Amino acid sequence: MSVPALLLVQNAAFGYGRRAVVSGVNLRVEPGQFLGLVGPNGAGKTTLFRGLLGLIPPLEGRVERGARAIGYVPQRESLDALYPVTVEEVVQMGAYAKLRGLRRLPRDERERAVVCLERVGLAERRAAPFSTLSGGQRQRVLIARALMVEPELLLLDEPTTGVDRGAQAHILQLLSELNATQRLAVLLVSHQISMVRQTVQRVLWVAEGRVTEGLAAQMLAPENLDRLYSATGRAPLGEDA
Amino acid sequence: MDELEVISWGERLSLFRFALLAALLAGAVCPLLGVFLHVRRTSFYGIALPQFATAGVVFGFVILPWWLENIGLGALDFAGAMHDSHAAMNYHLAWSNVFTFGGLLALLALGRRGGSEVGRVAASFAIAAAATLLFGRMSPVGKGFVDELLSGELLGVGVHECETLAVVFGLAAGALLLFQRDLLLVSYDRESALVLGKRVFALEAVLTVVTGLVISVGTMVLGPIVLFGLIVLPAIGARAWARSMRSYLRLASAFGVGAVLLGVAASFEFDLPLGAAITGAAALLLAPGGLLRRG
Questions:
Q1: A 160-189 residues inside an 8 A Cβ radius of B
Q2: Alpha carbons A61 and B17: distance in angstroms, whole number
Q3: Model confidence pLDDT, tens digit, residues A24-52
């Protein structure tokens, strides 16, 4: 008996207006999978990612979201430091979908926000202004916020971009633990090839408007990278595409 | 001796109670809107849109004779329309709304095309300011009212204006507080709000309507100078002290009320135009926050 898919994409095309940026997308995400979405800049990674999140509808084909809840971790640069929000407020935003009107966040949700912060190792910073945290810490807070929805599938947009190597390792270890201990399916977008190769099981390679799926170790092996990039007409930019 | 000098503070407060009540309401509510405009980096809307509203009010005077002749305003003749404060206020309020929402929707529509937001808003402010002066020159009537409106002299606010302001600002404050969490999420992280299933378009529409109503009614009753001051300045002043969004809203509102009280005291004590005094007081309240940031 097959496992029900958390995310199922069949012959889908995504784009803007009537122009497809990526097409012929087929994807099945099951519990416990760890996937990386990689490819050269401008290849359509963000468009595909937005399509998977449901932010843009498919131009053709089908997208079924079977997951009870999807946790989304945006790029932290998209969050403006002008907002005087505390770490705890940011995490509690994950529970806003359940709230109506002036009702206070229930005590169990507030406690769960602290548990989620403990999970990412930042409970002691919960009263700190979000903007005062380092890049890596902010990323972990956003992961804690995504955990507030009790997701079966976690979608992350460039989670390790712009953070130092120590923070990168911390974030990837956290994601690997969540994946291994809670069978949380993880799909992350990245242009950091070496990081993706070491962390994820399978890769979705996006180039020239098409998506190819395969094992990370094979597809992102150094000898294959040259072939993948030459097919796009671009030179590989070392290990970081 | 100036006539006002022989009137006691108690008598002044009683005489100008509607103006003071309207100013206090604006002091409490305008900064709530200002907070959302500030964090969304659209504070300039708080400056440009009152100018649109003013242009609308002045335009109402330009076409008042034509309007009375061809469409009518209840059963009022020209003299009646100029002196019946209720009917005249509703008429000008309608024009204020038309111009404010027209300007707001135009700015939002142009914003979707990209480019410089600051440049667009600055250009629209210049156009609205020029239109106000041109309409004022073309208008055969209403010069006294328009001069008072532009100079921020709000002591003439009467019961009808105060009632209208109370209803509209009460609804606006209610909407901002009721939806504060959702508006925060939608403003702070729009994509996450969509993924969480929030009705982002509806929430943004709520903010747009609240912005338009507060500015059009506020400008009509209090004038653009007070609106500039109370929407923009308390939100900037309170930001330096705020540690959370909830405290930011409370502080900004407190700063607004504080600016009104200080402005009223300065106006009565030194015989200054009330609107300008309130805005000046709001500007003074920026100083402690500025020092805190430097320190």
A1: none
A2: 65
A3: 999 999 999 999 999 888 888 889 999 99
Q: How far apart are CA B197 and CA A54, in angstroms?
A: 10
| Span A69-80, pLDDT tens digits | 999 999 877 888
Tokens of B125: 């402010």
Residues in B touching A83 (Cβ below 8 Å):
39, 184, 187-188, 245
Say if the Cβ atoms of B247 and A84 lie within 8 Å.
Answer: yes
pLDDT given at position B137: 86
* B189:A78 CB<8 A: yes
Query: In sequence order, which ranges of chain B are alpha helices (DSSP H)?
Result: 9-15, 17-39, 45-62, 64-70, 78-83, 85-111, 117-138, 143-151, 159-178, 180-188, 190-195, 200-222, 224-239, 245-270, 274-284, 286-294
Q: Which is nearest to B282 in space by CA: B250, B235, B246?
A: B235
Report the pLDDT value the prediction gives residue A238, as an integer from 0 to 100. 44
The ipTM value here is 0.86
| Averaged pLDDT for residues B73-81 | 78
The H helix count followed by the E strand count for chain A is 8, 9
